[in-house]
Design a protein that fits this description.
Number of domains: 2
Strand content: 15-25%
CATH architecture of the largest domain: 3-Layer(aba) Sandwich
CATH topology of the largest domain: Rossmann fold
Number of strands: 6
Strand order of the largest sheet: 3-2-4-1-5-6
Structural class: alpha/beta
Number of helices: 8
Order of helices and strands: EHEHEHHHHEHHEE
Oligomer: single chain
Length: 215
């Protein structure tokens, strides 16, 4: 069996004009994650990211380069979903206050899954299809260790799919995933299964615990 290790990007710039930029903490999280893999001598045979800046920069901060890219590993566009759900009149708290943000995120994604509003650039079914295409792209290889840097929604969807869980589990898992957390799958041919979810061994120390973040 081969391993697919999917790592969520480091902390991005929540509340800023451009979210798709790693924060100083995000860079540090990625460096620590990369250092742990090197310490464990876990050397990937193949590298893949989405096309987002925060994903590519996380991989570079981990000490890796020259990755393949697949847009299926990109996060769903929450800003677009908000605009579609609220028809452009987005409540201020949903973008400024963290608790309100995540509550609105959860409610919006649930409505998106149910096709309760129109006008989004991507339907939930289309999101699922591109995530599955990205998974197949990453695992269509002779490599035994594949390292992917992606985002929380994608990892939540991949995990829920591997478990055969209903669609609501995608979001429940999404909201648990820490920045630079490691989710590991095993694959061989058409076989694909979850081995480990949302692990952060690189934060399991007093100093490391101060690096934990969820957004």
């Amino acid at each position: 069996m081969a391993e697919l290790l999917v790592i969520r990007h480091g902390q991005a710039s929540f509340g800023q004009d451009d979210y798709d930029v790693l924060s100083e903490l995000g860079h540090r999280q990625a460096e620590v994650a990369g250092a742990l893999l090197k310490e464990l001598n876990w050397v990937p045979d193949r590298l893949v990211t989405g096309t987002l800046t925060r994903q590519r920069d996380t991989l570079r901060a981990m000490g890796f380069a020259d990755a393949d890219e697949h847009r299926g590993f990109n996060e769903y566009d929450f800003g677009d979903l908000l605009n579609a759900r609220f028809k452009g009149d987005v409540p201020p708290l949903s973008t400024g206050d963290r608790k309100a943000h995540f509550r609105t995120l959860r409610e919006t994604v649930f409505e998106w899954q149910d096709a309760a509003f129109e006008g989004a650039c991507e339907t939930y079914i289309e999101f699922c299809e591109r995530v599955e295409a990205a998974r197949k792209f990453a695992t269509d290889t002779d490599a035994k260790r594949v390292l992917v840097v992606s985002s929380g929604g994608v990892i939540g969807q991949m995990t829920a799919s591997a478990l055969g869980a209903d669609k609501r589990h995608m979001m429940n898992l999404n909201l648990q995933i820490k920045n630079t957390a490691m989710t590991r799958f095993m694959f061989s041919g058409a076989s694909f299964s979850l081995h480990e979810f949302n692990a952060t061994p690189h934060f399991m120390s007093h100093a490391g615990s101060k690096l934990v973040s969820y957004s």
